[in-house]
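Collaborator request, handled under Task 6.
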Amino acid sequence: MEKIKVFISRQLPITAEDLLSQADFEVVVWQEEYPMPKSTLIEQCQSASALLCTGIDEIDAGFLEACPHLEIISTFAVGFDNIDINAATKIGISVGHTPGVLTEATAEIAFGLMLSVARHFLDTNRQIGKGEWKYFIPTKNLGIDLKGKTLGIFGLGAIGFEMARRSKAVYDMNIIYCNRNINHDAEKQLGAKRVSMDELLSQSDVLSVHASLNADTKGIFNKGAFSKMKKTAIFINTARGGLHVEEDLIGALESNEIWGAGLDVTNPEPMHPDNKLLSMPRVLVLPHIGSSTYFTRSEMARLAAENIIHFFRNGKP
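Structure tokens returned to the collaborator:
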């Protein structure tokens, strides 16, 4: 009996390939380090029944029209904004993703960005390299105290909850959040308070973004939003770069409308090396490493592979 072929668009932790091979699938992996051109991805998928892709692969209507024979697409990511879900559903292609397994790792990055920006970690490191650390200046490199301040969460799901829990435990921060629905666990366990978007913007000392990217949230943190924030506020985004308008963020920082920013996501990705944000004070940008731990990436690979295995055994990811 001919084996079901699975194409994997990037080199992932070996867990994924091992699980699929042990389940008797034929597995083909793109061996280059750089991302696949879209035309090559379409070509490679012509003989496959399943695709295991990553969040940077563009799975749009054009791709799906060229590969309608695929039975399932499993993405190595918690988000699936790179996949045209409506088009996939219309064609009858199932889609799986990897929620839950990267919650802790991503919350750690958000927490780390908050602390790093508040205390000038990157700025002061740069000063040493430039030979500017010559003597003690009592009024230089003054940061922001986080204890007792207000943390605002936009999108209080699993990752946002863990960011809030850490901030409450370490700095006894007051937690407010803006969500479509009430998060009863956060309100009960953390004393979190649900507020409007305007209240979130005006009251947050640190505003951390954890929402999904969709038509309603795209570019929601724009010039108007930043103008409503405190001049001492720190903006953190570890969700998707498309949630903030980068030019407006730069403008808000340059005009001192907000105090600082920590980003693990940008738009586009990768960020161009001459982007102003990379040289601005009180700004730290990371190359989308929210899930980048050995354990988390291995678990993502496991779940992405198991989505495919379960689909062919049980009819759904």
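The cover message to the collaborator said: "The mean pLDDT is 96. The longest strand covers residues 50-54. Please let us know whether this matches your experimental observations."
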